[in-house]
Write a structure and sequence with these properties.
Layout (H helix, E strand, L loop, with lengths): L17 H10 L4 H30 L8 H22 L2 H6 L1 H14 L7 E3 L2 E7 L2 E3 L1 H18 L7 H6 L2 H13 L4 H17 L4 H21 L1 H11 L10 H13 L24 H34 L3 H25 L18 H17 L3 H8 L4 H7 L59 H4 L11 E2 L5 E2 L5
Helix pairs in contact: 2-3, 2-13, 2-15, 3-15, 5-6, 5-8, 6-8, 6-9, 6-14, 6-15, 8-9, 9-10, 9-14, 10-11, 12-13, 13-14, 14-15
Length: about 500
């Protein structure tokens, strides 16, 4: 009795199912990148408002005002400022943004120098990083990160063929970033310096640096950051607490310990929104640096997974925008800003969950960061502006498919990318003035030296005028034809073989 062969059933591809076909068609639409980015931006902003209100209420109620909404109102103020910056980043033409890159970097250098002056800059938690104006505090190092991202993308997108590839990548980007990093380290602020290093690494990676040189520079930067962390007092204590969590539970390791307790208390579903116990002065900076621990306690593992999923979606959308763009500046800007925000979120989640040492970086769009929140919303506006400049999006917007949002915000139509060739400007030597009674003036352009014709060549030299067609081949009269010799020396009738 023979066995009957069973034919395997073919796998149904995602594109053949109705849901797969709908997903593919929706992803192929020209405005999908912009809509996804706006969705992520709205969800992160809304979750940030809710969690700041929940995490800051206990500390605000115990503050001098006695109001449980004082810190939340301050956060709303910076979110409103960030909404204005988001609109400006979305509406401003990208060519104007490119021109503002270098002035923004120079202004950042001046501000970072002024913040170190006693009496001008204010010291908070051991770092002189803020300008305090009334009840508001501004951090110039956050503006420096945006300036470096824009200026670095413009610098690497401007091709300079007269420079070597390595010099094109590193000069003048690396010297300027080194100056900014030194000014930030003098505050001292290791977390912002690490974020600045992430921005530069993204610029160099997407700018085309070789893997060997990239690994070498990353190793040198990591060694420098480790040396700084081990030599400065508070930072070295954080490193030792991270390496030995049970050594300093009542001093430098207390904050990380309470964060782990909060994540453990949340479980899968959390204790409920607003029901956190760690925010009652058990966990310092619960509404700022360690707000992810409050999310894990109140919303559980599900809430943490939603936050991580939003940042993963942000990474996919940002890299999709960079891949679909054609302008080198837009590609570098979109990829760098995406790596910056996702990398900062990874570092924040890493030290809250005790996977990394505490650096003091905030969770983008969710922590009550003040200046950081407002400027992060500006970066989202720049990403949305780049998304509107994708070639399919430009074609759709120019045919009238702008939608309600563009008409309501009065956004201008994006301009297509036109490659501009690089023109190297060379100085022309002016002619020498004639000396009375001396030699004649030297011409500005030296005349070409006549070149003798090559042996056996019928081409005229550069100093001889070209002969006319009649002079080259005189007309044949009657039936008389010239006889030309072939390669073998034998004559061929009519000049042909």
């Amino acid at each position: 009795m023979s066995a009957t062969a069973v034919r395997p059933r073919p796998r149904r591809l995602a594109g053949r199912t109705p849901a797969g076909r709908w997903l593919q068609s929706w992803l192929a639409r020209p405005m999908t990148s912009l809509h996804l980015l706006l969705g992520v931006f709205g969800l992160l902003t809304g979750m940030g408002l809710v969690m700041v209100l929940s995490a800051s209420s206990a500390r605000a109620a115990a503050g001098p005002t006695g109001s449980a909404f004082s810190l939340f109102q301050r956060h709303v103020l910076f979110v409103s400022l960030g909404a204005v910056l988001f609109y400006l980043g979305l509406r401003t033409p990208l060519r104007v943004i490119r021109r503002l890159g270098l002035p923004a970097v120079l202004v950042s250098v001046v501000l970072l120098g002024l913040v170190l002056v006693p009496g001008i800059g204010s010291s908070v938690n051991g770092s002189r990083s803020w300008f305090v104006v009334g009840s508001l505090s501004l951090q110039p190092s956050e503006a420096a990160k945006v300036a470096v991202a824009v200026w670095g993308a413009h610098l690497l997108a401007t091709r300079r063929p007269h420079l070597a590839p390595l010099r094109h990548l590193l000069v003048p980007l690396l010297p300027m970033v080194t100056l900014l990093a030194l000014l930030i380290l003098l505050q001292p602020d290791l977390g912002t310096t690490i974020t600045l290093a992430v921005i530069v690494a993204a610029l160099l990676w997407f700018g085309g640096m070789s893997i060997r040189l990239f690994v070498l520079l990353a190793s040198l930067a990591g060694a420098g950051a480790l040396a700084f962390a081990l030599t400065v007092g508070p930072r070295s204590a954080r490193i030792s607490s991270w390496l030995n969590p049970n050594a300093n539970l009542q001093s430098t390791g207390y904050q990380a310990l309470q964060a782990r307790y909060s994540l453990a208390d949340g479980g899968w579903w959390g204790v409920g929104l607003g029901q956190s116990r760690a925010k009652w002065n058990y966990l310092p900076n619960a509404h700022n640096d360690f707000i992810f621990a409050i999310i894990g306690e109140e919303l559980g593992f599900i809430g943490c997974a939603v936050v991580l999923g939003l940042f993963a979606l942000l990474a996919c959308v940002g890299l999709r925008i960079a891949a679909r763009s054609v302008d080198p500046f837009q590609i570098l800007l979109a990829a760098t800003c995406t790596v910056w925000m996702v990398g900062q979120a990874f570092l924040n989640v890493g030290y809250v969950s005790a996977l990394l040492p505490v650096t003091g970086l905030q969770l983008p769009m969710i922590s009550a960061g003040g200046t950081s929140t407002a400027l992060t919303m500006l970066v989202f506006g720049l990403l949305a502006n780049v998304a509107r400049h994708e070639p399919p999006a430009i074609a759709a917007l120019r045919t009238g498919e702008d939608g309600i949002l563009a008409r309501w915000l009065r956004l201008p139509a994006p301009q297509p990318y036109v490659p501009q060739p690089y023109i190297q400007r060379r100085a022309v030597r002016p002619p020498t003035a004639p000396v009375p009674g001396g030699r004649p003036a030297r011409p500005a352009v030296r005349p070409a030296r006549p070149q003798p014709p090559r042996a056996g060549s019928t081409q005229p030299s550069r100093s001889q005028p070209a002969r006319s067609q009649t002079e080259r081949h005189p007309p044949v009269t009657g039936r008389t034809r010239t006889r030309s010799a072939g390669p073998s020396g034998r004559a061929h009738p009519g000049g042909r073989r």
